[in-house]
């Protein structure tokens, strides 16, 4: 036994294990103090010397929202590196900066809400930039690396405590707080849970954050999966932090519970330990918990369980052992090493999609650079403030020389004429003059959010605005000195923003045709612009009709810039705050029409045109006429330098696509269709060739693959092959290993990533790669038995440079458990365990647990259950159903044999189940077909002999 240190209460004794110390501290807290800990902002307990604590510090690709920090590439860009070692080092740098920033500002938290491991199933998801990949194994590999970096290597104390987002099956912003993801068991286990599970099992995760949406009809914040799956994966205490406002959504938006007391109690019992709601005001949550306790909806044990999990994280972060915490006093902030790492990550994230030999560019190349994003270093909602900045244009100036680079923004320039014949005008401003540099240049960042600037007026000549078209009619207007038009709370229009941004963007407008002219509608308020005596403003009445006078077309500027160029570089892409972001899904894969216009103009002027896409997500672009195409996510502070080094050949590109790029919107499933198997989604199931496949990416070198061998042992398949650099430059290659079942009896992935490795090879160098693939990687979730099963038979192993660029193949025979018919007489059929479905949605059986199935639109649905064994015969079928309607049963697609109609149905109570029965005469093995008609829920079906 360890002796207690004298004169210290046990919770302060460093000689005791954390569990005993937590128990001691928990026993010293009053019930009111424990309840106060349940809000995101837990107050100090001064009588015990316990400080205040808050959960939540955004750190997706750098410390966010807390001021200047090193900004690394967006998460999807880190996923594109396919480099776990690099991502671990990025996580390490981010956690060190969090520690260093906290030493100067106690608002910086050490419980970091990152990474996001939601799978990039659908490329129109507004938060595509936040995830790593559409593949669960690649996602978990990158996430595990990042969390290990965030956690640190110390065996006891954590540098930061990472929380994974967002549990579970969250891939849409449209109706995100009220939509339900229908996820059948195979998709749940083989796809959505897998990304979380493998990262949690790696041991560097402090907890998870539930998502806003519902899964199978039940809000994630009361999900039984938190207990059944998440907490079963580890012996470590995991902290579950609610998403912001989600506890109130259970009543206010989702109407899932009648009172906030019921909702809060249900979330706490389900496993939510910290409630993020009502900002810093904890009184609402504290009051709800107290009333729930007084009403008998909660016990003190329920509260203790949540507080214990919080304290476990606080102890691991060293809060109660400041003298022993090895991370205390960390000062690694904006170091040369972090700057170099940001550049390395940006370089490794660049994907060369196509190259007909135009790249790399010779040092003496004259380059015309076209496109507004070429001179931008865009941030997103989860970025820190830039300390250093490198745009593509600046990178090219530095690498090729400013005299060899010509730039055109490629925007239309306009004046807006009023009905009175005057023009909108940005007046001179003393406040603006105050922030001009020595050479008279304005730093518009110093004007962001200011309301002391004069509003727009009108005069005889007006101001020439850059009209920037972001697609789908969304516009921004920028003054010649770089300031964007914005609308403040007083409704006045000012040139007062350095960039579009904010939770509600106040810098976007729409031009609406009106009587031969246009009205200018401000998107943030929904109001039209009008001219008033006290300045230009937005209002609900008297909109001003404008004539749009084009002073220069984008195409003309492109023609001028490209006239003397050897090569044209068109930089296109998105602003992460517009048309695809948190709260807003995209509606199309296509580039904005304005960007397509300037791309056509550039190609017409010079066929040697390179397209560089800088974006948070994939596009559908016509590449046939382009000799070279690259893509990179917004690459953080070193984005421009990185792109220039790749274009010049200083770095050979080796990024790989972390998700499929489709040819058109017609290739996409419905945004809310989460059935990746039935909907043939992601590279695992999609049929036909995409625009660019998962794992695709080219190099300036060439690589040969050889010597593939595979050996099966009791627990794994051991695979090895060689990769040789057959080119003339040192370059990275991302070797990828896929597997597929050769003779599957049910739908299995066309191919599935099981291992990968990024390596660096000099010209002529050869390296042997070895992988140990566990047999569990070949298993699937067998709904007939409700568990994992390895199907015996041949499996093909495919090694190569992408999911479609397969260089080597071999086949192995694996032993497993042969399929068996469903023992439906003994076990019955759980409704959600279907093999195929049409028109069905999985819904909640009760508010606490279980699944049922209902017609998705209240009409009809068909369910198919393969190979059901009726043994020597059954004479009766029963169905546990709620609501009104009928269930029709047939075998093997034949005639209806039984109709089950519930009696005494309670149409107003979806959870009032009753048993319907009918006679049936069946024996042997058959496929069961069930047709559900009307507004009912089917929970299970049983058979009796």
Automatic annotation (TrEMBL):
CBM6 domain: residues covered: 827-944
Xref: SUPFAM superfamilies: (Trans)glycosidases, Actin-crosslinking proteins, Beta-D-glucan exohydrolase, C-terminal domain, Galactose-binding domain-like
Domain of life where this protein originates: Bacteria
Keyword Transmembrane helix tagged: no
GO molecular-function terms, A-Z: hydrolase activity
Record bears the keyword DNA damage: no
Gene3D superfamilies linked to this entry: 2.60.120.380, Galactose-binding domain-like (2.60.120.260), Glycoside hydrolase family 3 C-terminal domain (3.40.50.1700), Glycoside hydrolase, family 3, N-terminal domain (3.20.20.300), Immunoglobulins (2.60.40.10)
Keywords: Hydrolase, Signal
PANTHER family in alphabetical order: BETA-D-XYLOSIDASE 5-RELATED, SUGAR HYDROLASE-RELATED
Family affiliation: Belongs to the glycosyl hydrolase 3 family.
Record's protein name: Glycoside hydrolase family 3 C-terminal domain-containing protein
Organism of provenance: Streptomyces spinosisporus
Taxonomic classification: Bacteria, Bacillati, Actinomycetota, Actinomycetes, Kitasatosporales
């Amino acid at each position: 036994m360890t002796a207690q240190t004298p004169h210290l209460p046990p919770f302060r004794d460093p000689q005791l294990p954390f569990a005993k110390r937590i128990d001691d501290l928990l026993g010293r807290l009053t019930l009111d103090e424990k309840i106060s800990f349940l809000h995101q902002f837990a107050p100090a307990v001064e009588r015990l010397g316990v400080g205040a604590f808050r959960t939540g510090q955004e750190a997706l690709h750098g410390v966010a929202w807390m001021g200047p920090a090193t900004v690394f590439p967006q998460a999807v860009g880190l996923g594109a590196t396919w480099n776990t070692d690099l991502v671990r080092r990025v996580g390490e740098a981010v956690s060190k900066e969090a520690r260093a920033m906290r030493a100067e500002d106690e608002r910086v938290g050490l419980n970091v809400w990152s990474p996001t491991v939601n799978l990039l199933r659908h490329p129109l998801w507004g938060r595509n930039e936040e995830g790593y990949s559409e593949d669960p194994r690649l996602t978990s590999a990158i996430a595990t690396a990042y969390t290990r970096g965030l956690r640190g290597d110390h065996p006891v104390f954590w540098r930061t405590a990472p929380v994974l987002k967002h549990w579970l099956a969250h891939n849409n912003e449209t109706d995100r707080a009220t939509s339900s993801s229908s996820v059948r068991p195979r998709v749940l286990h083989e796809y959505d849970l897998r990304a979380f599970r493998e990262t949690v099992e790696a041991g560097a995760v402090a907890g998870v954050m539930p998502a806003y949406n519902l899964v199978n009809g039940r809000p994630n914040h009361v999900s039984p999966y938190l207990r059944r799956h998440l907490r079963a994966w580890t012996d470590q205490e995991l902290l579950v932090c609610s998403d912001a406002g989600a506890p109130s959504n259970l009543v206010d938006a989702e109407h899932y519970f009648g009172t906030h007391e019921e909702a809060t109690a249900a979330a706490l019992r389900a496993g939510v330990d910290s409630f993020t709601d009502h900002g810093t005001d904890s009184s609402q949550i504290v009051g709800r918990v107290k009333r729930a306790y007084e009403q008998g909806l909660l016990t003190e044990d329920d509260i203790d369980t949540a507080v214990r999990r919080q304290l476990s994280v606080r102890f691991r972060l060293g809060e109660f052992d400041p003298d022993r915490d090895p991370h205390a006093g960390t000062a690694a902030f904006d170091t040369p090493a972090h700057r170099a790492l940001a550049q390395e990550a940006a370089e490794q994230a660049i994907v060369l999609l196509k190259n007909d030999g135009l790249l790399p560019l010779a040092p003496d190349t004259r380059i015309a650079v076209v496109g507004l994003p070429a001179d931008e270093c865009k941030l997103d909602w989860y970025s820190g403030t830039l300390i250093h900045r490198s745009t593509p244009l600046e990178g090219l100036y530095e690498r090729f020389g400013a005299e060899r680079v010509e730039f055109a923004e490629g925007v239309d320039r306009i004046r807006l004429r009023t009905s009175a014949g005057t023009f909108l005008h940005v007046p001179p401003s003393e406040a603006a003059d105050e922030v001009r540099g020595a050479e008279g240049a304005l730093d518009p960042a110093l004007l962001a959010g200011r309301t002391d600037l004069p509003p727009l007026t009108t005069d005889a000549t007006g101001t020439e605005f850059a009209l920037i078209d972001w697609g789908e009619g969304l516009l921004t207007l920028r003054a010649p000195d770089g300031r964007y038009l914005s609308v403040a709370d007083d409704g006045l229009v000012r040139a007062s923003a350095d960039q579009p941004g904010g939770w509600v963007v106040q810098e976007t407008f729409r031009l609406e045709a009106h009587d031969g002219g246009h009205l200018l509608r401000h998107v943030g308020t929904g109001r039209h612009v009008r001219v008033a005596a006290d300045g230009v403003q937005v209002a609900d009445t008297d909109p001003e009709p404008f004539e749009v006078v084009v002073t220069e077309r984008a195409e003309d500027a492109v023609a001028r810039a490209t006239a003397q160029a050897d090569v044209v570089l068109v930089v296109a892409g998105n602003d992460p705050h517009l048309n695809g972001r948190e709260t807003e899904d995209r509606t199309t894969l296509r580039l904005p029409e304005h960007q397509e216009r300037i791309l056509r103009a550039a190609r017409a002027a010079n066929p040697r045109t390179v397209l560089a896409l800088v974006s948070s997500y994939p596009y559908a672009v016509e590449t046939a006429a382009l000799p070279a195409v690259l893509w990179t996510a917004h690459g953080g502070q070193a984005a421009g330098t990185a792109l220039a080094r790749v274009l010049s050949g200083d770095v050979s590109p080796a990024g790989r696509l972390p998700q499929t790029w489709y040819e058109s919107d017609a290739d996409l499933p419905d945004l809310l269709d989460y059935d990746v198997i039935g909907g043939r989604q992601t590279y695992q199931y999609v049929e036909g060739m995409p625009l660019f496949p998962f794992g695709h990416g080219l190099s300036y070198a060439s690589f040969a693959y050889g010597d593939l061998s595979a050996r099966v042992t009791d627990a794994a398949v051991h695979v090895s092959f060689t990769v040789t650099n057959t080119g003339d430059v040192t370059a990275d290659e991302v070797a990828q290993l896929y597997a597929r079942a050769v003779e599957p009896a049910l739908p299995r992935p066309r191919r599935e990533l099981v291992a990968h490795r990024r390596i660096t090879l000099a010209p002529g160098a050869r390296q042997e790669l070895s992988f140990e693939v566990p047999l569990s990687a070949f298993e699937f979730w067998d709904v007939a038995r409700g568990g994992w099963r390895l199907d015996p038979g041949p499996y093909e192993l495919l090694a190569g440079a992408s999911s479609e660029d397969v260089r080597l193949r071999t086949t192995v025979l694996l032993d497993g458990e042969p399929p068996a018919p469903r023992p439906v007489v003994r076990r019955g059929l759980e409704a959600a365990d279907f093999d195929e479905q049409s028109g069905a949605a999985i819904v909640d059986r009760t508010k606490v647990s279980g699944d049922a199935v209902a017609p998705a639109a209240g009409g009809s649905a068909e369910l198919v259950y393969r190979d059901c064994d009726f043994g020597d015969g059954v004479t009766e079928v029963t169905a546990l159903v709620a609501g009104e309607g009928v269930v029709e049963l047939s075998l093997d697609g034949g005639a209806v044999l039984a109709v089950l109609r519930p009696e005494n149905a309670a149409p107003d109570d979806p959870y009032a189940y009753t048993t319907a029965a009918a006679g049936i005469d069946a024996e042997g093995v058959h496929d069961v077909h069930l047709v559900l008609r009307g507004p009912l829920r089917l929970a299970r079906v049983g058979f009796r002999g």
